[in-house]
Amino acid sequence: MFGSQVFGRLLEGAATTVQVTALAVLLGTVLALIGGVVGLSPSPWARALVRIYVETFRGVSAIILLFWVFYALPIMLNLFLSPLHAGVLALGTNMGAYGTELVRGGIKAVPRGQSEAATALNMTGWQRLRHIVLPQAVVTMLPPYGNLVIEVLKSSSLVSLIALNDLMRRAQSLRINGAASTPEIFLGVFILYGAMAGVLTLLVRAAERRFGRGMDIGRLARIVK
C-alpha cells in the first residue's frame, strides 16, 4: 500500500471535497426550502417561476452546468468566480432544483387538518409552516434528502475539471507523478469516498430518528387522549 505522504495528499483533497459538498448542500437546502414553499403559493406567477427553475436545472447535467457557471457566467456578468465558488454554485443550484420537489411533496403530504387546526388557533402562515407543517414534512423528506446529499458528494468529483484540488484531482496528480501505483491510489480514493458517504448516511439516519421520535410522541399523545 502507498505511504503516509501519499495518503496525506489524498486527505487534503478529501477535505476540499467535504468543503465543496457541505457548501453546495447548504445552498441547495436553502433553495429547496424557498422553492418548495413558493411552489405552493396561491400566486400563479410565483409557481411558474419555481417551475421554470426546477425544470431548467433538472434538465441540464451537472457537468454542463458546472462549465457554464465557471466559463460562461463570469463573461456574461463581468465578474470573477473562483473554482470553489463556481463548483458550489453549480452543484447547489442543481441540488436545489431536485430538493424543491422533495420539499413540495413533503409539505403536501402533511394532512390538511393540521394547518386548519393551527389556523383555528390564530397562528400566522409563517408560524403554521415553521411549527406545524415543516416538522412533520421533514420526516417524509429525510430519506430521499439523504440520497440527494450523497449524490452531491459524488457529483463533487466534477470540480476537478475546473482545476479545483479536490480528492479526484489530487489522485490524478499523484498518478501522473508516479507517487504510487494507479490501483493503490484509486483504492485510497474508493475508501475515502466510501467513508464520507457512510458518515453522511449515519447523520441522515440520526436525523430521521430524532424527528421520528417527536412524531411518535405526538401520535402517542393523541392515542392517550
Mind explaining what this structure looks like?
The chain is an all-alpha fold. It is 84% helix and 0% strand. The protein contains eight helices and no strands. The chain is flat and about 70 Å long. The chain starts with a helix and ends with a helix.
Keywords:
single chain, 225 residues, mainly alpha, MetI-like fold, 8 helices, 84% helix, disordered C terminus
For the terminal residues, how far apart are their CA atoms? 63 Å
Q: Mind describing the biggest β-sheet?
A: none
Can you tell me the CATH superfamily? MetI-like
CATH class division: Mainly Alpha
Number of separate helices: 8
Instruction: Write the element-wise H/E pattern from the N-terminal end onward.
Output: HHHHHHHH
Would you tell me the structural class of the helices and strands? mainly alpha
The CATH topology is given as MetI-like fold
Protein topology:
Elements lengths: L3 H35 L5 H16 L2 H16 L5 H27 L2 H9 L4 H31 L11 H11 L4 H43 L1
Quick recap of the structure?
The protein has 225 residues and is mainly α. It has helices spanning 4-38, 44-59, 62-77, 83-109, 112-120, 125-155, 167-177, 182-224. It has a single domain (4-224), classed as MetI-like fold (Orthogonal Bundle).
